[in-house]
Amino acid sequence: MEGDTFQQWKNQCLNKCDFSKKGSVDEDISHIVSFINSHDRYFTTSSCSGRIILLDGVSDCPDVQKQNCSWLFVTHQKCQREDVVTGLEKSVGDATFKFEPFVLHIQCKQLEDAQLLHTVAINSGLRNSGITVGKKGKVIMAVRSTHCLEVPLSHRGNVLITDQYLDFLVGVANQKMEENLKRIKRFYECLQGALQPQEQRCSLKEEADKKPVYRRRRKRTQDDSVTDCCQSVKEHTENSEEEIDCDLLFLS
C-alpha cells in the first residue's frame, strides 16, 4: 500500500504543469532530474540550476517576498555588467543583486533513501542539504549549497553603488556560478555511483584495485572523486543504524 501511495504521488507530480517562470527544467541539471526520476524510489518536486538575479522590491517594506518584487534581470549562466546596468535603470524601488546556488527537492520513498542522498549531497560540497518528513509521511530531501550572494544596489530608485563596485559584484557572482557548476557536476558523479546497482559498484571497485598505484598517485582524476563518493556511500550503508548528521525535521 505504501508503494502504491508513493507511485501515485510520483505520477501526479511528474504529470502536472510546470508553473515556474521559465516553464521547464534548467539545462544544466536536466540530466540529473531525468536520472533521479528514472529511479522508482525517487522523484523531483522542484529544481533550479542556480541563477543570478536583480530584483526590484517595494521601498520601506519589511517583508521582502517574491510576490512583492519585480524581476529586472535573471540568468542561469554567467552575467554581463551591461545586463545588470540595463536592469538597474528600470528600478523604481529597492533593487537587490543576488546569486542563488543550485537547489533540488527530491521526494523519497523511505527515510533511508533520503539519508543515502543526503550523504551524496554532503560529500559533493552541498552542505546546506537536509531532510524533512511531513505529516502525511512525505519524505523530502533538499539539496542545497551555502555560497549565496545578496547585495542591495538601490533605494527608491536611486543607485547606491559605484561602477567599480558593480564590476566587483558581477565578478564575484560569476565566480560563484563557476563553483556552482563544479558542484553540480560532482553531485551527479556521486549520485551515479550511489544509485547504480550494487554489482556494478563492486565491479568498478575491482577494476580500480587492479590499477597500478603509481598511476593513481600521479594524477587525481574524476574517477577517483567518484570512488571517494562511492566509498562514503558504502560506509553509510554499512552504518545505517547509526545516527545520521543531517537536518531532520518532523512537521506537525
Automatic annotation (TrEMBL):
The UniProt record lists the keyword Methyltransferase: yes
Please provide an example of a Pfam family that matches this protein in its UniProt record: TYW3
Query: What catalytic activity does the UniProt entry give for this protein?
Result: 4-demethyl-7-[(3S)-3-amino-3-carboxypropyl]wyosine(37) in tRNA(Phe) + S-adenosyl-L-methionine = 7-[(3S)-3-amino-3-carboxypropyl]wyosine(37) in tRNA(Phe) + S-adenosyl-L-homocysteine + H(+)
Q: What is its EC number?
A: 2.1.1.282
Q: Could you tell me which InterPro entries the record lists for this protein?
A: tRNA_yW-synthesising, tRNA_yW-synthesising-like_sf
Instruction: Specify the tRNA wybutosine-synthesizing protein domain's residue ranges.
Output: 8-192
The cross-references to SUPFAM superfamilies, in alphabetical order and at most eight, read:
SSo0622-like
UniProt entry keywords in alphabetical sequence: Methyltransferase, S-adenosyl-L-methionine, Transferase, tRNA processing
Functional pathway = tRNA modification; wybutosine-tRNA(Phe) biosynthesis
A single GO BP annotation from the record? tRNA processing
The terms under GO molecular function for this entry are: methyltransferase activity
The organism's place on the tree of life at top rank: Eukaryota
Q: Which family does it belong to?
A: Belongs to the TYW3 family.
- Function comment: Probable S-adenosyl-L-methionine-dependent methyltransferase that acts as a component of the wybutosine biosynthesis pathway. Wybutosine is a hyper modified guanosine with a tricyclic base found at the 3'-position adjacent to the anticodon of eukaryotic phenylalanine tRNA.
Q: Which PANTHER family match?
A: TRNA WYBUTOSINE-SYNTHESIZING PROTEIN 3 (PTHR48418:SF1)
Q: What is the protein name given in its UniProt record?
A: tRNA wybutosine-synthesizing protein 3 homolog
Q: What is the organism of origin for this protein?
A: Culter alburnus (Topmouth culter)
